Amino acid sequence: MDLEKLLSMQKLCINDNPATCVTECPIHVDVKGFICEIRKGNFEEAYRILSKRMPFINVIGLVCDHPCENLCVTNINGNAISIHELEKAVTIYGSMAKIKTLPIPKIDKKIAIIGGGISGITCAYDLNKKGYSVDIYEKENEIGGSFLKMPEIILNPKLIKEEVTKLEEQGIEIKLNQEITPEKLKDLTLEYDAFFIGSGEWNEKFNVNEVTMQTEIEKVFAGGRIVSGCESVIQSVQTGRCAAVSIDRFVYKKSLTALRSKEGAYKSILKVDIKNEEISPRIKPENGTFTKEEAINEALRCVQCECHKCVKACVHLQKVKLDPKAYIRTINQNERIILGDHYANKTINSCTECGLCGAVCPTSINMADIINETRISMVSRNKMPLSTHDFALKDMEFTNSKYFELIKHQPGMNNSKYVFYPGCQLSASYSEYVIKSYNYLMEKLDGGVGLYLGCCGAPAKWAGRQEQYDSSIEKIKSNLEKLGNPIVITACSTCFSNFGESLKNIRIKSLWEVFDEKGIPLGAKPGNGKTLAVHDACTTRNEKGIQESIRNIAKRLHYEIKEPEFTKENTKCCGYGGLVYYTNKEFSREVTQDRIKDSENDFLAYCAMCRDLFVLKGKKTYHILDLIYGSGKEEISDMKVPTLSDRRANRFKLKKELLDNLWGEKMEIKDEYNDLKIVFGQELRDKIEDELILEGDIKRVIGYAERTNDSFYNPENGHILAWKRFVNITFWVEYQKVNDSFNIINAYSHRMEVKGV
User: What is the pTM (predicted TM-score) of this model?
Assistant: First the structure.
């Protein structure tokens, strides 16, 4: 796994980028942060946050001209968050906050500030904090610049004097009634290491670099045209701060321009979607200034800007409490340091690999690809326990074995222009629909329609068993070549996706597109305007042709379609994807339930597993073939879902029936203990289903025990305890023999090998 490439993908995640209110603030006040504290009623902490970026907070907090408000994402019909009024509330209710400051040792460098206006005193304030000795020269008899021109009702002169006193207490020397002429400036050049000129009269005389504030005179920095005539308080603060940075770099002979593109206001790259947010009207203070309660209520209107589109859409990311950036760090740590642990394995194996995160992400970070690559890496390093995906891989092995695999030309033909590949799950759930669909294709399509029963290799792909998946695809490719490379017609969305990705020279078509093009079979009952919500399989996320064909079929059958909240390219997973159904069944159910809540209407699915999982959670769901071939629609929508054992049996029966009825061939394959009679209670049946134990596994354990007497007998209750290890899983069965049948009392399995003495 290319970990450097993986880590570079973190940079694509924009979620931790600052919100517009922060980037559009010339001094980048943490607006989101201090509003968050107000929401909690913590005005003193809000004050501390505000003071980190805002000098003279008790003054500027009252008179800031808040350019941030105009670009607030909630600024719809004038309902932007009252950021400035909240700043004022913080200065009033939080000013008693204790702010810890670390003493900075003085350095042997002196700076002169010409002009005691807002930019000048800001520059002095910042440089003093860096340890410089700072003198302010002001031609008037007091400093404060445009602060002094504000009406007393807006800004009490007492507050200005308090801030001036603080500057003096910090060691800044203020020299009043000192007009500095160009000639006098020359006299001062030997005394000071640099100058900042904040005087409007001087600024017009200099050609000022608007990035660094440096003039053509090396030691002199000025606000230049940016400040000249500027009425923005907060912009003046930024100008003084920018000059302080330049002076500090100049003194220490560092680059004046490096890494300064985001000084001052700039455009945020954070994307915030508030289409589902209800923006309430702006709260107006009754007495001109917010009360604490009014401030808290106004702060609660803030949507606390973040992207997190992937997290909001994906129940897995919500569950693990990770966004892509944090998830990638977790994977990197797992790969480099921990080298595989239980927590990381469970997290990584709980992703459905559905790709929804990538579909909604503004920068297209697809965790499905990252997770799959991680699983492949874990398998290659023997850090993925075989038991994790054992059942699914063995089911794939069964499906591609003599018990199900079938490759035939159309009866009576030696060539196939097409081949029908129904997939393993449709064959397991709706074998009768597979037969009807195949007969339909043979009737509608010329040139011969072959049949190929098997599994596309999806379990191996999801499990990270790349070699096994590649081997499966190569086998399919070889078999298709033997059929003459026909057009493959798939009924399974996952097969369609995998073939399209891995069989580049093979033409692929969906069964649903054929129904849409060739017409619906006679006998399909109309829906009479019934409303359905289409659940698109996540593996068809980018297959618009399939999505539209499903809707066209439903509409032709007189069904109304109402799309769920997440649909088509933004569809959600049913809970089966990525083999989560086997690795974390409890979470799989949560994913299923999360999808169900997206619509109150009955679902229409075209993936057998999607339909089955929804029905298991009580959601009425039709498969598209129910609409085409089913009768008694209300009963079909919540028809019993086959168990795992039923699914195996259904595939086997399907092959047997097709061979017998279409090709006149008898299937003689038979399981050794298939005729053995076992009896379950429903509770135990549910238990073994949940624990992925097949009835066939139980029969083989009992059959082996009865044949070899390799078992334990309990004389107190007459129960027999038997075990048998199949490859890497040991199955245990407690049973009682009653006449010619076996009552199953308990069954369980684990990775253990029991050896006799």
Answer: 0.85
